[in-house]
Design a protein that fits this description.
It contains 39 helices and four strands. The protein is an all-alpha fold. Among the domains are: 5-121, no CATH class; 169-282, no CATH class; 296-356, no CATH class; 359-427, no CATH class; 629-830, no CATH class. The strands form two sheets. Strands 1-2 form a two-stranded antiparallel sheet. Strands 3-4 form a two-stranded antiparallel ribbon. Helix 22 runs antiparallel to helix 23 (477-490). The chain starts with 20 loop residues before the first helix and ends in a 12-residue tail after the last helix. InterPro entries: PPR_P_subfamily, PPR_rpt, TPR-like_helical_dom_sf. Belongs to the PPR family. P subfamily. PPR repeats lie at residues 594-629. Residues 38-67 are annotated as: Disordered.
Length: 842
């Protein structure tokens, strides 16, 4: 809409005075005061060259009818020239007149008065501008229509040409508050101080900034980068920054949307608000609220709360900002610890005619639960919130309330909130010594612990364990083992210590149970398995812990899974001595070892350089203790060979590894196990082949490939063949020129063997068309064996020549009936797959 009449009171024969903002900005008239401060005598070269007649007292006719043609020419020449630095002269060298409401003309005194009263255009200029505006609107609509029809590239090209023709950068974007941004440019700075301002101007003029109306993370980062660099320069003359620039900077720096995570957002808002205050730019109501919040977060809590109180009559009384104002106050007052005032603000909000948001009570619940004296008030606030939400309350609301009470050791209130979430009928457990049967059981407590562990609230889960045991419920080992595993997976030193403490407490409970069982047998001659009470049950009670309350003496006994979790952690961290201690305690606890525990101790000894001891333990545990190995066991054993551990290989150790590897393969075939994961199915055959390749056991390698084809359903892939032909897999992980050459040479070798195989097929009468799946698998196995013979120095060896060596290796590896005799019943009995192998290469 056009400006008010009071600002356009000069009537110079024009029918209209409205000029659109975009055109004024494009003519660089965003700051009129510096422009009108110049002497009009220097506006055009033509007027400067003409001699000026001496000024005389104007007659009545000249006061009524000024020279409009001269005024229009001077005005248009000034529009073409653009703004110049302000002059110190304030007087007008040319007489300008303004028509008053009474109809008389009054001469303007100086430049300031001229700046206030001027601003209109004549009919010709107004018509041209209106025509230009219509053309711009039509062009924008045409480009949008082209984009919707799929011609986005052509539309972008035309848009660039259009902008280049107009020689301006027009954003026309919509901000979150509905502001439109026209030409964004800051002028009035010169010299070296101009550089950061020009960099900021270049950023504001980018077409990619706020593309589509939504800032990108890059826009936010670069906006603060350029603005912070220009702040010192802009502070010298804040008046040179147009309001449109302030609004645009605020829109970008305060943006909070998907994909934008700016940890310094509130700091940037705080600094920008201070600069706008210094520049005398009034903040809009939503901006004031955000500025108060930023002030509070940046550490000025007292000042922010005072500013919030002072705004009660303005922001707190407007319908548009009423809800946001009081919600901000509740959050700030709760964080500041003023729960009484926060509660009054929350009541004002919830009792108003505005739609209440009962979740604003959550920060109040947190603030009240933090203090022991107001915990009951926190529970009352929770019940009020639950009543107000009614059927709209969500599980996330309950989870947050439970987390609040657990954080401040109010476990009883947390359990009551969990009961409210799980049961439709009211079950009150507060103040009761024993929990009702409906909630005081392993299943209900297990659900809660599982939910807490899954949500990552591990300390809260431990507090629940301590609390329910004090109510006579001993948590099950499965629940505590889950907590142990979650603590250890977190990787922090604090959680590692907590897990070890709890695990050894469970182990001690197991040792106490074993001691009690032995004593009962010695005294009574029998043992009642229902008697699970530990020895010296009340020891340790009465002491306090600052975080968890009474010291927790675990009654849950450790299981094999507990030992396994602890053993894996010790093995991963390289704590070999602690692992040895754990296995000594394992015997005292009378817990039967498992294959997982055996794998961890074997791996630990192997990593510690005691491969012989690792193999001895494996033999002892499998033969004497009856531990049944699995696929992970044999993967660990093959990795314990010196060729897989040492960088510099010892020929003597390599020869020993060849015999050891054949023995491991025999044990693997004879053991009763099956593949349990796809990972072990992929790793084990590959590790076996590479181990025998490193020991140069080429006959054993060929026998292993044939045996694994029958027992594992193993089919080599082309990538595996290229990797084997290129060299050791571990050394090829480093990307170097030498490794690239090795991979290229290995691929050439495999491709040559594949071409030779296909030529043999053609000579045997193969049609040469696409190969079937069976033929493809046969080709890969044939190429593998030919490459093994090539690597072993016998590329032309026949099956008859190889037969004695293969039979010897097959006997040592325990697969003579499988590879040589091909006994179908023996193959079916020793197969390690639960189903028939697929024909596709694995």
């Amino acid at each position: 809409m056009p400006p008010p009449r009071s600002l356009l009171s000069v009537d110079l024969g024009r029918r209209g005075s409205y000029v659109c903002k975009a055109c004024l900005d494009s003519l660089r008239l965003t700051n009129l005061r510096p422009w009108v401060a110049r002497q009009p005598s220097r506006l055009s070269s033509s007027t400067a060259r003409k001699p000026q007649p001496p000024q005389q007292a104007p007659s009545k006719k000249t006061e009524d009818v000024p020279d409009q043609a001269q005024l229009r020419r001077i005005f248009l020449e000034e529009l073409e020239r653009g703004p110049e630095p302000p002059s110190a002269t304030t007087a007008l060298d040319v007489a300008y007149f303004n028509k008053e409401p009474s109809g008389k003309f009054r001469r303007l005194k100086d430049n300031d008065e001229f700046a206030v009263e001027s601003g209109g255009l004549d009919t010709e200029i107004e018509s041209a501008i209106s025509h230009l505006e219509q053309q711009m609107v039509d062009t924008a609509k045409m480009l949008q229509k082209m984009e919707k029809q799929g011609n986005k590239e052509k539309a972008d090209e035309l848009r660039r040409q259009f902008k280049k023709t107009l020689r301006l950068q027009y954003k026309g974007k919509m901000g979150p508050e509905g502001e439109k941004y026209g030409v964004l440019r800051i002028t009035g700075f010169s010299g070296l101080r101009r550089r950061p301002v020009e960099a900021l101007n270049a950023f504001l003029a980018r077409d990619s900034v706020v593309e589509g109306g939504i800032p990108r993370p890059r826009d936010v980062v670069e906006c603060w980068k350029y603005y912070s660099a220009a702040r010192k320069t802009l502070a010298m003359a804040w008046d040179n920054v147009p309001r449109e620039v302030w609004d645009f900077l605020w829109m970008i720096l305060s943006w909070e949307g998907d994909g934008i995570e700016d940890p310094n957002r509130m700091q940037h808002i705080y600094m920008l608000a201070k600069d706008m205050q210094s520049a005398g730019v009034p903040l809009r109501d939503p901006q004031q609220l955000l500025a108060i919040e930023a002030m509070f977060i940046e550490g000025w809590r007292e000042e922010a709360i005072d500013a919030w109180k002072k705004a009660a009559g303005t922001l707190g009384s407007k319908r548009e900002t009423f809800t946001d104002y009081y919600e901000l106050g509740v959050r700030m007052l709760c964080l500041h610890g003023d729960t009484n005032r926060a509660q009054r603000a929350a009541e004002t909000l919830l009792r108003s005619s505005h739609p209440p948001n009962a979740r604003i009570l959550l920060p109040l619940i947190r603030a009240q639960a933090e203090k022991e004296a107001t915990v009951a008030d926190a529970w009352e606030s929770y019940t009020n919130m639950r009543m107000l939400l009614g059927e709209t309350i969500t599980i996330e609301d309950y989870d947050e309330v439970i987390n609040i009470f657990l954080t401040f050791n109010c476990v009883e209130y947390a359990l009551q909130a969990f009961i409210d979430m799980m049961f439709s009928k009211a079950i009150d457990i507060r103040g009761k010594t024993r929990l009702p049967l409906a909630v005081g059981n392993h299943f209900f407590i297990g659900k809660w612990l599982k939910r807490l562990i899954g949500a990552g609230d591990l300390d809260g889960a431990y507090k629940v364990v301590v609390y329910v045991q004090s109510k006579g419920i001993t948590p099950s080992p499965i629940q505590l083992n889950g907590l142990l595993g979650a603590w250890l997976r977190s990787g922090t030193a604090e959680n590692q210590e907590k897990a070890e403490t709890l695990a050894w407490a469970m182990i001690q409970a197991r040792l106490d149970y074993v001691a009690l069982r032995r004593r009962h047998k010695d005294v009574l001659g029998f043992w009642d398995p229902c008697d699970t009470s530990p020895v010296d049950e009340n020891s340790g009670e009465g002491t306090q812990d600052a975080q968890y309350g009474p010291v927790y003496r675990c009654r849950t006994r450790a299981t094999a899974e507990t030992f396994s979790i602890l053993a894996e952690n010790y093995c991963t961290r390289g704590l070999h001595d602690r692992l040895k201690e754990l296995f000594e305690v394992l015997k005292q606890a009378e817990v039967g070892p498992t294959s997982f525990l055996m794998n961890q101790i074997v791996r630990s000894y192997s990593q510690n350089g005691q491969a012989d001891e690792a193999i001895r333990l494996y033999r002892t545990m499998t033969t004497e203790q009856g531990v049944r190995p699995d696929g992970h066991t044999f993967l660990t054993l093959f990795n314990s060979l010196s060729v897989n551990r040492l960088v510099l290989r010892d020929p003597e150790l390599s020869r020993q590894d060849m015999l050891t590897a054949r023995a491991f393969f025999r044990d693997m075939v004879e053991a009763d196990w099956t593949f349990d994961t796809a990972d072990i199915f992929a790793q084990l055959p590959r590790t076996i082949l590479f181990s025998m390749l490193k020991t140069k056991d080429y006959h054993g390698m060929m026998v292993a490939a044939r045996a694994m084809r029958e027992l594992f359903g193993f089919h080599p892939t082309e990538a595996l063949l290229v990797e084997m032909a290129s060299g050791s897999s571990t050394s090829l992980l480093v990307r170097t020129k030498r490794n690239a050459e090795r991979l290229l040479a290995g691929r050439r070798t495999i491709e040559g063997l594949m071409r030779k195989h296909r030529m043999d097929l053609l000579r045997k009468g193969h049609p040469g068309d696409d190969m079937t799946a069976e033929e493809r698998v046969a080709e890969l196995h044939d190429v593998l064996e030919k490459w093994i013979l090539l690597k072993g120095g016998a590329p032309g060896a026949t099956e008859e020549q190889l037969q004695p060596h293969l039979e010897e290796a097959a006997r040592e590896m325990g697969v003579y009936d499988i590879v040589v005799r091909k006994d179908a019943m023996e193959i079916a009995r020793r197969r390690k797959l639960n189903k028939a192998p697929a024909l596709e290469p694995q």
